[in-house]
């Protein structure tokens, strides 16, 4: 497994790097034997140390967690414990993920755009109502069941996930609602 351990305006020494590799490796070994790479980034916010970890699994899933504490090692441990809890929650599904699928998760490509905020003066001066595109990117859109999409969204820590529904091939969205529940949008409609 490849590790990328870095710090934002912090020097990450050999001792911390060794600690991160051994502890993270131990956590991932319990739940998934196929992680491909892990990125762990340390930063400082006032008196708090922050640790952000992202692990990519060979199944196409991404697991992300964040921890904070006044000590850099404690920040990593908080992050690792959150990741451990996420992986423990989905352990059975992670291990059984490929039993139902002969092929690993299929990802399609989709264009993704970042739009500039609307300028109120442009509209009043006779400007165009078309938004200004300030960035173009490619995004990966997985083909999943709704249950797997919710699992992917929660493991990655994202507020939403766009996916292609494996039952009918249509584009769907699962998202975290303000009330804490998960919403599912299927624009296919029934009538």
Automatic annotation (TrEMBL):
InterPro entries xrefs: HPF/YfiA_ribosome-assoc (IPR050574), HPF_long/plastid (IPR034694), RHF-like (IPR036567), RHF/RaiA (IPR003489), Ribosom_S30AE_C (IPR032528), Ribosom_S30AE_C_sf (IPR038416)
The molecular function terms in GO held by this entry are:
ribosomal small subunit binding
Which residue ranges does the record assign to the Sigma 54 modulation/S30EA ribosomal protein C-terminal domain?
A: 130-183
**What are the subcellular locations of this protein?**
Cytoplasm
Is Cytoplasm included in the keywords of this UniProt record? yes
Assigned keywords, A-Z: Cytoplasm, Translation regulation
The record, for Pfam families, names: Ribosom_S30AE_C, Ribosomal_S30AE
Q: Which GO terms describe its biological process?
A: negative regulation of translational elongation
Q: Which superkingdom?
A: Bacteria
Main localization of the protein described in the UniProt heading: cytoplasm
Record function comment: Required for dimerization of active 70S ribosomes into 100S ribosomes in stationary phase; 100S ribosomes are translationally inactive and sometimes present during exponential growth.
Record's family? Belongs to the HPF/YfiA ribosome-associated protein family. Long HPF subfamily.
Query: Matching HAMAP family, A to Z?
Result: HPF
Query: Oligomeric state and partners?
Result: Associates exclusively with 100S ribosomes, which are dimers of 70S ribosomes.
Q: What protein name is recorded for this chain?
A: Ribosome hibernation promoting factor
Task: List the source organism.
Answer: Paracoccus aestuarii
Taxonomically, what lineage is the organism? Bacteria, Pseudomonadati, Pseudomonadota, Alphaproteobacteria, Rhodobacterales
